[in-house]
Amino acid sequence: xxxxxxxxxxxxxxxxxxxxxxxxxxxxxxxxxxxxxxxxxxxxxxxxxxxxxxxxxxxxxxxxxxxxxxxxxxxxxxxxxxxxxxxxxxxxxxxxxxxxxxxxxxxxxxxxxxxxxxxxxxxxxxxxxxxxxxxxxxxxxxxxxxxxxxxxxxxxxxxxxxxxxxxxxxxxxxxxxxxxxxxxxxxxxxxxxxxxxxxxxxxxxxxxxxxxxxxxxxxxxxxxxxxxxxxxxxxxxxxxxxxxxxxxxxxxxxxxxxxxxxxxxxxxxxxxxxxxxxxxxxxxxxxxxxxxxxxxxxxxxxxxxxxxxxxxxxxxxxxxxxxxxxxxxxxxxxxxxxxxxxxxxxxxxxxxxxxxxxxxxxxxxxxxxxxxxxxxxxxxxxxxxxxxxxxxxxxxxxxxxxxxxxxxxxxxxxxxxxxxxxxxxxxxxxxxxxxxxxxxxxxxxxxxxxxxxxxxxxxxxxxxxxxxxxxxxxxxxxxxxxxxxxxxxxxxxxxxxxxxxxxxxxxxxxxxxxxxxxxxxxxxxxxxxxxxxxxxxxxxxxxxxxxxxxxxxxxxxxxxxxxxxxxxxxxxxxxxxxxxxxxxxxxxxxxxxxxxxxxxxxxxxxxxxxxxxxxxxxxxxxxxxxxxxxxxxxxxxxxxxxxxxxxxxxxxxxxxxxxxxxxxxxxxxxxxxxxxxxxxxxxxxxxxxxxxxxxxxxxxxxxxxxxxxxxx
Length: 712
Hints:
mainly alpha, 37 helices, elongated
């Protein structure tokens, strides 16, 4: 009876019939009370998003497997102190964290969200030492800015570790070896799976036979720790080159699986006899990635009034940085793929399936092919080296280097959603919105059900002023998954582009309700509060974002802009310095840092503007504000020279012509002043700028002395 009920429960779990699994597991536990049946019921509760139920039934359990499940339940309930106590009863016994790599990874997440950065880094590194294929641990290290080179992490030591694990396991299991004969790492790997104890009829309850639970727990669905392609009507020249098949059908996904699923998936299993072959599969969850809000501004504000839109600065699409073109990257990948069909292009799933096929063979008929498995391990690690290096460069904001690394991938790997999202984010950080748009469009057309990176894509469309496409995208994302924060961020960006900041704020707050740890949603809320001139609310949102991710430089930039508006220039300097420390290649941050220095009467302001101009020659902001600073210092001839150069690059900017007209007025060249003031008015400036331009024109007729008297 026990085996029948247990098999029924595990079958229900594998078929996502969670309520049925809970029903029969409760019957099982009532008839055969044991620690292992209790763990099985906890798995059922966690699979059905009932972490509170698992928490209560596991509280007080002492076995390693129960401790891990209890810690996982605490983590989902934000009970970080209890989760740490369950995983690490004593700080003197770090190696006894239950769950092996998954346990260290979970403990790292607990430390990270508790604000203990150094401890979290240590745990993520421990997870990688236990299992080099724990990709999520490496992603977390990258997001914390503490990741080593991928060639080191996935190098010779990782190869030896995996070879020791998988090759030795295959040989030992095929010969029916006892678990005690496995290596220490094999035991650590086995600790990442729950073991079921079955009562043997005719013996004491203490005489137990160990059985592994091999069926994975389906990922839970009510928590989203990570964030980070879409379907658009506008055709892209890249699509026809890359898409070889129509995109898959669109399916609604009302409950989105979270990153914790990767933690749970190593803790389930089907019941098999001890003499049978056993294999543990580690599944990887989706990670969070971040996106940026800062870019050079298309419409330059007049004078030094920092307008609402300064929080969302970006370059004109025609002024984007020159980076490797998307079509050339894809073509290169296509050529490489024909040469690498059996090497770096082989995915982990392909290798895993080949291993499973070999393990399913009768050992008496064929011996284990260790050489093919070793070759597979090498290919997987080589693939992870490329992906790891690209991801690390991206999160260090070395975006050019990241794009070059991703070019090394085969076409089939390059055209996966995760890689396309990474490439799109790299183009976005470089303010190359056209290539970012093309890349995200390709990703969304191939994978319309994947939502990671959609928040960044909506920001790309925001900067491109694609109101219709952004609205269509937001509607489509909501139809795919209403419970995804990325979907509501897209809706918020759509309202923000329409200048409906109140509605945008409501949509972004919905995203935060769905996932309180979605950093980008907090930052976008700060931008909307700033647009509404609620700087106290903006500061609150930015600080909340930084409490989740201290390396989210967009929030530091937002705080700097807030203090700049409040004329707290020393505070603004400090925030911009912190933002530049994280992203030292942002000319936009350098530009506003220079403004803060100038307002603080610091002589380094002009040097900072020059540095910003050299960092990104396509960005017009440093030139404009440099001219503004020179004009305020009375050096009108140098300011005139800078603006004349800028006028050639941005002839449609009304603020450039307005400032140039004011300088010509100071130089008493009234004809040229009138010409540029008139040109500025013809370019449809904002209402506030139009009032200032008209005031400048009136002063051309009225002497300055009289104008001063009237103002008094």
